[in-house]
Amino acid sequence: MGNLVADPEVRFTSESLAVAKFRLVTDTPVKKDGEWSTEPEYHYVVAFGRTAELCKEYLSKGSRVDIEGRLKTSSWDDKDSGKKLYRTEIIVNDDGLYLLDKPSKGDGANAESAKTKK
Prior knowledge:
- The chain has about 120 residues and is mainly β.
- It has a single domain, classed as CATH 2.40.50.140.
- The chain has 2 helices and 6 strands, in the order E-E-E-E-H-E-E-H.
- The chain has a 5-stranded mixed β-barrel.
- It is flat and about 55 Å long.
């Protein structure tokens, strides 16, 4: 559960499949010098199909969401340094996106209708 860092980026494959990518920030509780506080942790999120279309329609920077999905780690070689780099992404389940913000007037959205369904 967290907030979007920026508006989702939505593109379409050559087969017209929607793909949404965005970053999510969550707060991780930490104890420093006997005091509890939170530290931000950033996550890369990818959604496909109808879920991606819902991201485009209902999400924007700051939106609060709950995500259910699986982790996928990719690697590549950096073209400048030659070092191997890694990125772990959350791949959203088909029914794993839940909007937690109240709808703004006129958008007709609510947490139940924006919940993805097959």
